[in-house]
Task: structure prediction
Amino acid sequence: MLLYRWLNEAVENRGTAKALVYRDTYLSWRGMQHRVERRAQEFAAMGIEKGHWVGLMLGNVPDFAILALALSRLGATVVPLDPTTGVRDLTLFLEHAPLRALITRPRGGNELPSSQAPIVRTRKDARFEPESRRRLQGTLLTCSIYRRDETPPAEAEAVLLTADTSGDPKGVLRTVENITANCENIAASLDVTADAKILTTVPLFSAYGFDLGLCLALRYGATLYLEDEMSPKRIAKLIREQEIDFLPATPPIYSALAKMPTARPLKTKGARFLATGAQLPEAVAEGFRERWGVRVLPMYHTTEAGAVSLDRKGLQPETVGKPISGVELRMGQADDNGRSPIWIRSKAVALHSVGPMSHIKPGDAKKKSEVRHVPIGAIDTEGFLRTGDLGKIDKTGRLTLLGREDDLVKVEGKRVALGEVEGCLESFPKVKAAQAKVFTDEHGSTMVVASVVLSGRCRAEDLIDHCAKNLAPYKVPRRVEICLALPAEVGGQECAR
Result:
């Protein structure tokens, strides 16, 4: 009930102040509390109670915040889900997650079964339809109720989705302690107060948006501005007219804002504009500073550990700064390229997860000498999380990220296993072999591109369509090159788009 408790504290301290702004409407803290109470009563009438897990497949709209708070009011666990999640990933996650209910929008981006709710498959491989489906009053949202007998593996305020080392979905269980520690660590490093105006353009269903948007606003009674369209023009208008001083975003957003012809230096003092999800190109950072008069602050953030490090002055965009308050870093043994595995310890680190690899438990390594045997995503006996990220620390203590230990990459701030993309391509009848990689342009935008060797006549467009039917949108290759042999074999010289 942490999120709901924070709501009550904000109502007591902030009352009629703006709590949430979306387009041309806003809710005060009291107005939000009133809507939350009504939704909590509606959920209770559906049989949702303390300990139940409820999925929210919604974007950056007021309903996300209101429903998450209503679930917290009942002691239920909120499970934010990307509305574009593919049927395969969603079904695989639900096989391991004891979801009691799932809230969706009509035609919310997935080709779900005609019921608008996925068929859930239990560990015993028994399929069943939802017990009931109800339309939430006054909305187009559908709440599908499932009969689930499994007991959640541990208490959690929220379960945030990411990917494990194989690319399969993994739900990270965030406890009250995790969420509280993460907010306090961020606030101590960025001086967040009730006067902050937080604009969240990154999805609330992502750990980045959930942590630095919803949770931070609730914890300190700050005003949360939501934007669900990645329109540079709209974002620029909000920043200037609403005097936004706290913006968690990604490098491509800052690149687009730096190109706005109407951009001019902001008068807002103490603005904290953060970038994570991909490396921040120096040209983007400098371009944004010149046009807007504000430095972008690179941040290292993970779903399992929350905010990790930050360049507080934004002077060296090639790094992600130093560990923030409350976070310890430990670097493993460097490889031949000078890259070291990154280990993290803090109260914000989540100890439990659900998914195909959820058998991994904290403390799998019995002694320090066995630390190299701790799987990626697991925690050693000293409480350090093996992140799977690689990096190096310079003489001033600044961290630079240098890739991964596995084949996971970040695309649009989300983890993608290149092996999964290659497997999808190779499942096409006329593909003999495939190789996928991530491409980052000069603006910091990332995309998957692929090279394939064919065994018959086929167009690149057919392969992209095949991937679009089987993968989440951000995993689909933006470009497919048809080759005589894979680039590793011919130096990339015999491929054609």
